[in-house]
Specification:
This protein has helices at 6-11, 33-37, 39-50, 66-74, 111-116, 151-166, 185-199, 204-213, 233-240, 264-267, 284-307, 313-316, 320-334, 342-356, 365-368, 372-391, 396-408, 434-442, 448-456, 459-462, 472-486, 488-500; strands spanning 24-29, 55-59, 79-87, 90-98, 101-105, 125-128, 175-178, 215-222, 248-251, 255-259, 277-280, 413-415, 418-423, 426-430. Strands 5-2-1-6-7-8-10-11 form an eight-stranded mixed β-sheet. A three-stranded mixed β-sheet has the order 4-3-9. The chain folds into two domains: 6-253, Rossmann fold (3-Layer(aba) Sandwich), CATH 3.40.50; 285-500, N-(1-d-carboxylethyl)-l-norvaline Dehydrogenase, domain 2, CATH 1.10.1040. It has 22 helices and 14 strands.
Length: 501
């Protein structure tokens, strides 16, 4: 079977959209599955539907991973993307050959080729996703490194080369689209770049150029990307008629919020291409919507669902009680605390149900349970407090979710293999920071009331003493007693019965 290439596609009489030649207008730090199913997909659609006429040159942000780079270059940047999921209850699958990538560079072995991109006058955009740990300032980095080890260090070197080439010309800076999953990712990246500029004594003129000629955009990205389908790959290639070592898969849902000036709408014709991308002056309400509704629904539901006998998210959506518990949490307790127009919130919530019901993704509840303490604090606690402040009472389902959390963390064994709890006769692993696991191990024999008071008053968990919230300790204790005597599923049913009265 021939490898994927432009020539192979021509031989196969491929009828889909392809853009073989276009200027490299985008530099992308990151060659992984997510960016290729998200940013490069959006570029590809803009090329087809809005005449964007751009290629992205990919850069490995860390050393290693040469296999992916080799595949990208062997396949002339081409790969097949499958977007699959559920829309309005219907199973949906779309296939597209992505032709928006030109090549992939490794700055650790070809530093000069990487830096030469800075001298390309047509280069305008920089996209990046170097993981949450990528936007970090490491003072050990030096300007003379080839390249600097940190991503912000590499970017500073690249920006300085750009400044040397075009510093006296207006409009030659970059629009930088940061996709890392941290708050205010673009602004945090800019802070790191400016630190390096000062540490390396690159001059006040360069610092002024960075601030005035470059736009560091904080963005919110939203798409589950499942990557290379190892088990299906051989069969897929057989159907395609070519060997593709870069097949990528993701959910059909996608949404990108870019915080930037109105002028970006002309430079980046997402709207003209009909893409789900919003350019706005403030991305914060949309970040809050995603964290509270999508992530908050996960965190509120999964621990109770697991204790009720479920193992993957999709099956939870087939259970009337668990699905309705999640819906009540979202529509009655989370949405009322948010600031975006209700219609936008309702549409997003409706999409969440479809996403959780994706027939192509086996999203394990135990995988989602990782670090549930910090997740509950960030994703659910603000909704609890917002609801209580608005209605002067506790939200029934969210309060129950706190009891599910405590019941799930009721482990009985802490050793070299980790901290384990029991679901009936089945042991499960509880994954969190070591001090948290040790806390629950120390309280493994405590009665419900004692455990609730100790956990809720632990400021290291929540950043505050939750026993100060009137009635919360008593409600959570009552819920925990129901779980321990009758089960988590019964508590969900009681919550729904209470809400229907």
């Amino acid at each position: 079977m021939k490898k994927l290439s432009y020539h192979t596609l021509k031989e196969l009489n491929y009828r889909g959209y392809l853009l073989e030649d276009a200027p490299e207008r985008v530099l992308q730090f990151g060659e992984g599955n997510f960016l290729r199913a998200f940013v490069d997909y959006f570029i590809d659609v803009m090329n087809e539907k809005a005449g964007f006429d751009a290629k992205a040159v990919l850069v490995q942000p860390i050393s290693g991973g040469d296999k992916i780079r080799e595949f990208i270059n062997e396949q002339e940047g081409l790969y097949t993307l499958f977007l699959r999921g559920s829309e309005n209850g219907r199973k949906v699958s779309e296939k597209r050959v992505i032709s928006s990538v030109s090549r992939c560079l490794n700055p650790y072995c070809d530093y000069d080729a990487y830096m030469e991109c800075a001298r390309n006058p047509q280069l305008r955009f920089i996209a990046c996703n170097t993981t949450e740990a990528g936007i970090q300032y490491d003072e050990s980095c030096r300007f003379a490194d080839r390249p600097a080890s940190s991503y912000p260090g590499k970017l500073t070197q690249f920006l300085y080369a750009r400044y040397e080439a075009f510093g006296k010309e207006r409009g030659r800076g970059f629009v930088i689209l940061s996709c890392e999953l941290i708050d205010h990712n673009g602004k945090e990246l800019e802070k790191c770049v400016l630190k390096y500029a000062r540490q390396w004594e690159l001059g006040e003129d360069f610092i002024a150029w960075v601030k005035q000629e470059n736009i560091f955009c904080s963005t919110l990205v939203d798409r589950i990307v499942t990557g290379y389908p190892q088990k299906e790959a051989a069969a897929i290639c057989g159907e395609l008629g070519y060997e593709d070592n870069l097949i990528d898969t993701g959910e059909i849902f996608g949404f990108w919020v870019i915080e930037g000036p109105e002028s970006l709408k002309k430079e980046l014709p997402f709207a003209e291409a009909g893409l789900p991308v919003l350019i706005t002056e403030d991305h914060t309400p949309y970040k809050q919507r995603k964290v509270r509704i999508l992530n908050g629904a996960h965190t509120s539901m999964v621990l109770g669902a697991y204790l009720s006998g479920q193992d993957i998210v999709r099956n939870c959506m087939q259970d009337d009680v668990i699905r309705e518990f999640m819906n009540q949490t979202i529509y009655e307790e989370i949405i009322p605390t948010l600031t975006l127009p209700r219609e936008e919130l309702m549409d997003f919530a409706k999409a969440v149900t479809d996403r959780f019901n994706n027939p192509f993704i086996d999203h394990e509840l135990l995988a989602i349970s990782l670090n549930s303490t910090s997740k509950w604090k960030a994703r659910v606690l603000p909704s609890l407090k917002g609801y209580r402040e608005k209605y002067q009472k506790l939200p029934v389902c969210i309060t129950a979710s706190l009891a599910f959390y405590l019941a799930f963390y009721r482990g009985n064994r802490l050793d070299g293999s980790g901290f384990c709890g029991m679901r009936g006769e089945e042991a499960y692993r509880i994954n969190d920071e070591q001090p948290i696991l040790e806390f629950f191990y120390e309280h493994r024999e405590a009665d419900a009331e004692t455990l609730v008071k100790a956990a809720l008053s632990n400021r290291d968990f929540w950043g505050e003493d939750l026993t100060k919230l009137s009635g919360l300790s008593e409600a959570v204790t009552a819920n925990l007693n129901v779980i321990e005597k009758q089960g988590a599923y019964e508590l969900m049913k009681q919550c729904l019965k209470h809400l229907s009265q």
